[in-house]
Design a protein that fits this description.
28 helices; 3% strand; transmembrane; mainly alpha; 4-stranded mixed sheet; globular
Length: 756
């Protein structure tokens, strides 16, 4: 740690404090999760549903794709409704019509404004009043509400069947016919939907906000942003401005301007290291990356098209076997698999270099075993999802072999365990090389940071085992975001930073000291906002105001380090001018430039757009979220993984001459296609929905009537242009990698160097 003590202690302090916050308020999530009453009963004591029947409904919902078909509490897919908001509004309207008939013998729509206001006041009192008795573990529902629940449940029971009257609605929602064949399971699922709406409309004991912080927006019962929501939103904006200002001052006054000017070697130092057997065997990893990438991109096109035709693909009815929920599951899982594989391959390529250019015993065998284990897990995930959503999978096996129902961690628990075991095995392969390197002389600080990130990647995926099939959804959400946010956006970010620093230092392009200092400083900045910033996903998932406050505060700080990424992009771009041989690494460097750009735009601008509580209150569950998700997941981690792939390809095929025209097409068409997808379709739709959600409520912004209007349907068709452009770029880079692995490798390296 000599020479880097301040940076190391800063990082250690940041991790200790932020994980302390994450753990403390995680305990708050457990303690304050909305109750699932042991019984919901009528005023005369009749049991309507129980905790077990509600959890049975949760498992039924998981089996049809869960968050891949509509959403719960705003998390999930965006074509079908948010079932919480939709159920709540339908039940409220049913209650008002029942009350109007009972009190005034007329339809609610025909009442005078004064009569409507009277019933709306009674409605608010009936729904926001908490009738849950913790001692008896039961909640009481009055007869009028029971009748409204039964009417709403009947609609959902028919919607998820093959009822002919609702066929057009299913088509609008991209639902296949007879989504959930068994009547009993549809009834239980309706009870689960009801409970999520009950939690969203019932006030916490001793508070004037609901269990979900007054989300979703529903004017009929005054579900509007709480004062705390507005206060912490303002605080987050102030902190963002303060953080950006502080970073600029630190950058100006604390950054060392007298950076050592190192002498760049005449030949790439990495190319001088003889390839080890394990490195030579990485070609199949690169192939699986681009194969899954191609599949994922094509599935994305099908998923997007489902939003305009619902059950068909250009007139061909494919929803019977490959419905929207399945295709979207495969699309997301394929993306996670190929991006993770790209990162794992980068680690396996660096490991022998770290170990002095040699493999530990049986390293190649381990690399080969890991590859085939990956193939088994991918195949099991895809087949299991198909069998689950087709309702072929036995009910009791769905969670373990089929579909967990939770976006990004959809894969069955057995395949999730297999993935974790594979990552731990990768960790072992990495540590066998790293351990030997620590015994060598010299500065080991950068190696220590790289090792720490490898260990974190290996172990933190295990957070996904902290919940089970019947775990309370608020608690599940807490742990799910440990994977989606903390594991991916946190530790993978640190790994990428350390890996790139290690690569550029190994090439002799930056000094070890500058690479180490930059990597340590970046890690502290990423973790400071990233760890407790996990809570910005949980504002309305049954958590309390303090969780919202922490999430809003620290998620604003997540954006701060992204401000300097323009300089990082320029540095990466300028590396190719430091030596003639760096021209051969132009396209990997271009991918890293794209990473910096999309990190700033996708993770920074589009991320903060939806992060403040007041913003997310209205836009959660709208197309503003996939705008951020596409720009951040592919724009950052996708381009990073592709950059690693191209970098590895250049070294394991040293005589390969890249097709510059093909690579130019790949790079620019992917970037332009992604931009078109976001800014001509997803974001405009999101903003139009935003207005609808703010003026009428989330139920309306996701409703059939709103989403099927000509303007929005036209904008969804417009996305086809961006999709096609992107697909051309994706196929180009995939073709280049495949051709590079198995095609002619071009001229000898000496000739290439002379030409460059």
């Amino acid at each position: 740690m000599a020479g880097y003590k301040k940076l190391w202690w800063t990082l250690i302090a940041v991790l200790a404090i932020t994980f302390g916050i994450l753990g403390y308020f995680g305990n708050e999530v457990y303690r304050e999760a909305p109750p699932i009453p042991g019984k919901f009963v009528t005023t005369n004591g009749q049991t309507l549903m129980t905790e077990d029947s509600i959890l049975d409904g949760q498992t039924a919902w998981q089996s049809v794709g869960g968050m891949q078909l509509g959403s719960i509490w705003g998390h999930g897919a965006y074509q079908a409704p948010d079932w919480t908001a939709d159920w709540l509004h339908r039940e409220l309207v049913a209650w008002l019509n029942i009350a109007a008939a009972e009190v005034f013998a007329a339809d609610y729509a025909d009442l005078t404004p004064a009569q409507q206001n009277q019933l709306q006041f009674e409605l608010k009192q009936a729904y926001r009043t908490n009738t849950y008795d913790a001692l008896l573990d039961e909640a009481v529902l009055d007869p009028r509400r029971v009748q409204a629940i039964q009417q709403t449940a009947d609609y959902y029971i028919r919607l998820f069947s093959d009822d002919a009257e609702l066929r057009s609605t299913r088509e609008s929602y991209a639902m296949k016919e007879n989504t959930l064949p068994k009547l009993e399971r549809r009834e239980r699922m309706a009870e689960f939907f009801f409970w999520t709406a009950w939690a969203a409309s019932t006030e916490r004991p001793g508070a004037d906000i609901t269990y979900t912080n007054n989300w979703p927006h529903e004017p009929l019962i005054d579900n509007t942003p709480s004062p705390e929501n507005i206060i912490w939103s303002i605080v987050s904006v102030i902190l963002l401005i303060a953080g950006v200002g502080g970073l600029i001052w630190a950058w100006a006054f604390l950054r060392q301007h007298d950076e050592e000017d190192i002498e760049v070697p005449q030949q790439d130092p990495i190319s001088r290291v003889k390839l080890t057997p394990s490195q030579k065997s990485l070609g199949k990893y690169l192939f699986i990356v681009v194969a899954l990438f191609t599949v994922q991109v094509l599935l994305g096109g099908v998923t997007a098209h489902y939003t305009v035709e619902g059950q068909e693909f250009y007139g061909i009815e494919i929803s019977k076997w490959f419905p929207y929920s399945l295709v979207r599951t495969w699309h997301i899982q394929a993306s996670l698999f190929w991006i993770a594989t790209g990162f794992l391959a980068a680690g396996l390529f660096l490991a022998p270099i770290i170990n002095g250019g040699k493999d530990p015993k049986y390293q190649k065998l381990g690399v080969d075993i890991l590859f085939w284990a990956l193939v088994v897990v991918v195949a099991g995930t895809f087949v299991g999802s198909f069998l689950a959503i087709a309702q072929i999978m036995p009910e009791h096996l769905n969670f373990w072999l089929g579909h967990q129902g939770y976006e990004y961690v959809d894969l069955g628990r057995l395949w999730q365990i297999g993935k974790f075991v594979g990552i731990v095995f990768w960790l072992v392969l990495m540590m066998r090389c790293v351990a030997g390197a620590f015994k060598q002389e010299g500065d080991k600080n950068l190696l220590a940071l790289f090792t720490a990130s490898v260990v974190a990647i290996g172990l933190f995926y295990g957070a996904g085992f902290a919940y089970g099939e019947r775990t309370h959804i608020s608690i599940m959400e807490y742990w799910r975001w440990w994977i989606v946010h903390l594991w991916v956006e946190g530790f993978f970010e640190v790994f990428a930073t350390a890996a790139l620093a290690f690569i550029f230092h190994s090439m002799g392009l930056v000094s070890r000291r500058m690479a180490t200092a930059a990597a340590l400083a970046s890690a502290s900045l990423f973790m400071l906002g990233g760890v407790p910033g996990t809570f910005h996903h949980l504002y309305f998932s049954g958590t309390t105001t303090p969780v919202m406050a922490v999430g809003a505060t620290f998620s604003a700080l997540e954006v701060v380090p992204l401000i300097v990424l323009g300089y990082e992009a320029w540095e990466n771009w300028s590396l190719q001018k430091k030596a003639v041989w760096m021209q051969r690494l132009k396209w990997p460097l271009m991918c890293f430039v794209a990473v910096a750009f999309w990190n700033m735009l996708g993770a920074g601008v589009l991320g903060f757009m939806i992060n403040p509580p007041i913003s997310l209150y209205y836009v959660q569950g709208l197309n503003t979220t996939p705008t951020h998700a596409h720009a951040a997941l592919f724009g950052v981690y996708g381009f990073l993984a592709l950059g690693f792939v191209m970098l590895i390809l250049r070294y394991i095929r040293p005589h390969l001459v890249l097709n510059d025209k093909l690579m130019s097409t790949a790079f620019w068409w992917m970037n332009i296609g992604l931009g078109l997808m976001l800014f001509t379709s997803l974001l405009p739709i999101g903003f139009i929905q935003f207005h609808a959600a703010a003026s009428e409520g989330l139920w309306y912004a996701r409703s059939e009537a709103f989403m099927q209007q000509p303007l929005l349907e036209g904008l969804r068709w417009v996305r086809t242009v961006g999709d096609v452009v992107f697909i051309v770029g994706a196929l180009s880079i995939s073709w280049q990698v495949v051709a590079g692995l198995w095609g002619k490798q071009g001229q000898p390296e000496g000739v290439v160097a002379e030409q460059n």
